[in-house]
Structure formats: C-alpha cells, structure tokens
Amino acid sequence: MSKTKSVTARFLPRLDDLVLNGLTFRTLAAAADTEYEIIQPQYVFLYRVDSGEAWFSHPTLTECLHLVAGDIVLVMDGAPHSLRTTLHQPAGQVVPLRDLESLNQPRGLSPPSHTSLLVGSADLETRYGSRVAPPIVHVPITFEKQNPMIFAVAEIIALHVSNAESGSYGVLRRLSEVLSIEVARFSLARTNSPDTWLASYGDKPISKALDIIHADITCDWELATLAASVGLSRSVFAARFTKLIGTPPKKYVRELRLFHAARLLVENQHSVGQVAFEAGYLSEASFNRAFSKQFGVTPGKYQVKNTSGPSDIVSSIE
Questions:
Q1: 239: Cβ–Cβ under 8 A, 6 or more apart, which residues?
Q2: Degrees to nearest 5, angle at CA 42 with 107 and 106
Q3: Residues ≥6 apart with Cβ < 8 Å to 148
Q4: Within 13 Å of residue 32, how many CA atoms lie on the same side as its CB?
Q5: CA-derived radius of gyration, the chain
Q6: Is 269 a member of any domain?
C-alpha cells in the first residue's frame, strides 16, 4: 500500500490570511515578586502593560525583555514563556497558567497589584497553517509616535474588555486581527532577516507575485503572466522567485492548489468532482492524476484516511 506523501513546498502565509479563533482576554493584576508561567501551547498571546513593569522570557530570547507601561508583546509561536514582576530569579512565587480562565478575578476582589497587564490569547489560523509573524514581536511605548495605529487599537481593545458589552466578542476578534497585522508590519519594517517569509515581504516584486497567487489559488498561473504583473522578465522573475522562496513559481502554484484541494476534501467533505472544480481543475481526471502524483494516493482515498484534517501535511511544511 502506498504511503501518503507530504507537500514539499513551503507555502508562505500572507497577512490577509490571518484569523483568530477562541479569543479570550483577561486583566492580570500581578503581585510583586511573582512569576507567571504560560504553558498553553499552540496559542497566540498578546500582552500590554497597563501599569508597573514586568520581565518577559521566551526560549528564543537570550535575556529577558524589560516591559514598562504601554509596551506590547505579541507571541506568535505558541511556545511556553513567562512573565515576572521581579528582575531576579527565581521569583518568590511561581504561578503556572494553562489558560486565562484562572485570571478571571471578580472586580473589587483582586489582590493589590504590583503590575497590571491586559492579556489575550487566541488560536491562530491562516489559510495554510503557517505562521504570519516572527515568534515574538515587542513594540515599546517609545514607538507610539511612529506607529500610532498599534497603540490606538490596543487601547480600544482594553476599553472593550473593561466594558464587556453585548457584541464585544465580535468587535474584539476583529480588532485583535487588526492589531496582530499591524504588529507584524511593525516587525517587518524593522527586521533584516534572511528568513524566507520575512524576505518575501522585503522584495516588492516577489511579495506582489505571492499576493497575486494567494488571492486566487484556483488559477493555474502562467510564468509569463506573473512576471508581467510585477514588471520583470520571465527569466529574471523565475530565478528571483526560486532563489528567495526555494521552489520555482510553477511548482509553488501547483502544490499550493493541491494543498488547497486536500484541505477542501477533508474539511468540507465535498465530492472529488466538486473539489476538482473548486480547486480550478478543468476535469476530475486531470485533478486525480495531479493529486495522486503529489500525495501518492487518490483524492477519494485521501479523504477517507484524513478525517481529522491534513495536519500531517501542515507540520511537514513549517
């Protein structure tokens, strides 16, 4: 029996793909000499220091980030991390937090606060399961004049959390997505990284080409069309795209369409013929051939085997 093969391309997420689900916000009245260990994996975390100061640690940091009132931190990789209200280690008290429900402190009954923080968590989704920002983004309050949108949106979020009016969840979700996108843009403007995802945004023609491709993934984009759309010759565009992304444009487009089809097969439980149409194939037969060549199994068998979704493929392209 043939084994299901994984997608080989690394699909690059676009900021427009970002969706936050299961959003939760709490106000943390942090006591002095206390460390809060956040051990909830696979979630995005947002922190804004309302008053006082805190020290933030994460596996990717060589030293703690010192946070002061107004600072914002976005944690995008779901890794365990911690916040403490004292510089020295270990703190006098360590509080493990598996979720934010334990921070639901009734008004008027909270202990005296050394540091107050707005804390949010959400399940991050993008259309293709990839990240849309570096693991951590720190936006100091000193950047408020250069990036007023970030701090204005964070303030509006804080107001909605404190008021908790009807319909606030929908508003908070949209505001949080806006804030996450603005924070990602802030990071992109200040990061000089060889990382493929970050570099793709820094290269305007390639970034534009990726936006075109992702805007209509059912289209079997021709090399000449993409090259002309970004003002480059076919040869220059192909070489530049391949060097930056790590795969030729046509292969990227083909595998992206097939990944999209695989997700439709599992998540929507549509028929193979319907998925072939939705993925932009002219016939079910051509779709079957392309899908089988890529995954080593027919679309129908793939659908039966993967009732929980193509998470194995997602993990293979991270």
A1: none
A2: 5
A3: none
A4: 2
A5: 22
A6: yes
How far is C-alpha 163 from the geometric centre of its chain's CA atoms?
28
Q: What residues have CB less than 8 Å from 51, skipping those under 6 apart?
A: 69, 113, 115, 116
In order of 35, 43, 56, 62, the CA distances from 16 in angstroms are 35, 19, 29, 31
68's enclosing H/E stretch is strand 65-68
Cα separation values, 206 from 52, 132, 183, 211, 236, Å: 43, 17, 22, 9, 11
Q: Are residues 168 and 207 in contact, defined by beta-carbon separation less than 8 angstroms?
A: no
Q: At what angle do helices 148-163 and 168-190 cross, to 10 degrees?
A: 160
pLDDT by residue (tens digit) across 68-118?
999 999 887 778 888 888 877 666 677 776 655 555 443 333 445 578 888
Instruction: Kindly give, in sequence order, each residue whose CB lies less than 8 Å from that of residue 74, ignoring residues fewer than 6 positions away.
Output: 44, 45, 46, 47, 133, 136, 137, 139, 179, 180, 183, 184
Kind and range of the H or E element at 48?
A: strand 44-51
Q: Does residue 181 sit in the same domain as residue 223?
A: no
How many folded domains does the chain comprise?
2
Q: Which of 136, 157, 190 is the last residue of a domain?
A: 190
CB 214 within 8 A of CB 17: yes
Instruction: Report which of 171, 182, 215, 170 is spatially closest to residue 14, judged by C-alpha positions.
Output: 215
Please state the pTM of the whole predicted model: 0.60
